[in-house]
């Protein structure tokens, strides 16, 4: 109702109440978020969403945090407002973690290992599950033949504070990886062309073009950067994906890993390369943030 009233007095009165100024009891920040959305103050709503999702993430509620960021991303995009970099980055990290299970289920342990390495490099953002995540990283890297990565993170788990938290089922295996690592030289990650510069080769999970320094959109089915030769958009949420991998994933689960929407296989269409290049170019022309209604 305050959002519809467009009254500065009512807005400030409600914000003071929600912040605890009137009674000394701060309310659930979700109410602040919903108020800013109702007011059309989307930039402020985005900042609030990042704070709320960070709290949920620190509590280990990764799916909840992912949903908050995705919903905000969707709303900002619909309003033609620039998605803040921090929000986009946090969503990418959470999504990378959530891809591990479906990728492993498909038997693609290399892709699962790469996503876990990405998460492990930002492990401070996952404080509730440091040891389980690093353990999964070691196991998946070892399965994928990334012995150097497996040794690196297995060694991390041998620290006294982490070693005590290791499950007995994994302790011996991880100790063996540290004691007898074997050849620790990992094969180089495959490279594909940057969608912004066809002459620039980029490792599959790197999300920055080395020549233009532009952020490269990631595939919601693999977490790798997109390529213009195999690009499609989810018909439910319009996030980009590799056509080949997205269709494989949909054949198995039937739902988009980003929006959880039901996706009929027949609705997924591979873009023509020229259309894919146009779509990529538009990503650089997204509107800047605009102020919503107060």
Please tell me the overall pLDDT.
91
Distance between the termini: 14 Å
Number of strands: 4
CATH H-level superfamily of the largest domain: Zinc/RING finger domain, C3HC4 (zinc finger)
Q: Could you tell me the radius of gyration in angstroms?
A: 22 Å
Q: What is the CATH architecture descriptor of the largest domain?
A: 2-Layer Sandwich
What is the approximate shape? globular
Spatial arrangement of strands, main beta sheet: 1-2
Number of domains: 3
Largest sheet: 2 strands, antiparallel
Q: Report the sheet-strand fraction.
A: under 5%
Strand-pairing-aware structural class: mainly alpha
* Count of runs of 4 or more consecutive helical residues: 13
Helix proportion:
40-55%
Name the helix and strand elements from N-terminus to C-terminus, one letter apiece: HHHHHHHHHHHEEEEHH
CATH class category of the largest domain: Alpha Beta
Concise synopsis of the structure shown:
The protein is mostly helical and 294 residues long. The chain contains 13 helices and 4 strands.
């Amino acid at each position: 109702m305050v959002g519809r009233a467009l009254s500065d007095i009512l807005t400030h009165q409600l914000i003071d109440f929600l912040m605890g100024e009137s009674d000394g009891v701060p309310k659930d920040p979700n109410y602040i978020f919903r108020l800013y959305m109702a007011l059309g103050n989307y930039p402020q709503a985005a900042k609030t969403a990042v704070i709320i999702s960070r709290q949920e993430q620190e509590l280990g509620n990764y799916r909840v945090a992912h949903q908050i960021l995705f919903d905000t991303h969707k709303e900002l995009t619909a309003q033609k407002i620039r998605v803040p970099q921090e929000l986009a980055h946090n969503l990418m990290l959470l999504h990378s973690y959530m891809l591990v299970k479906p990728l492993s289920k498909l038997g693609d342990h290399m892709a699962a290992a790469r996503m876990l390495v990405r998460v492990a490099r930002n492990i401070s953002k996952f404080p509730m599950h440091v040891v389980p995540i690093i353990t999964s990283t070691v196991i998946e890297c070892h399965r994928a033949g990334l012995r150097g990565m497996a040794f690196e993170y297995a060694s991390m788990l041998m620290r006294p504070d982490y070693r005590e938290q290791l499950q007995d089922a994994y302790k011996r295996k991880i100790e063996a990886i540290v004691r007898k690592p074997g050849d620790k030289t990992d094969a180089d990650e495959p490279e594909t062309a940057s969608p912004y510069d066809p002459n620039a080769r980029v490792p599959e999970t790197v999300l920055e073009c080395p020549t233009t320094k532009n952020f490269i959109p990631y595939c919601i089915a693999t977490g790798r950067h997109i390529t213009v030769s195999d690009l499609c958009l989810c018909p439910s949420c319009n996030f980009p994906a590799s056509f080949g991998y997205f269709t494989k994933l949909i054949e198995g689960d039937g739902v988009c890993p980003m929006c959880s929407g039901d996706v009929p296989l027949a609705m997924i269409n591979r873009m023509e390369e020229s259309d894919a290049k146009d779509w990529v170019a538009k990503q650089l022309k997204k509107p800047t943030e605009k102020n919503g209604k107060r």
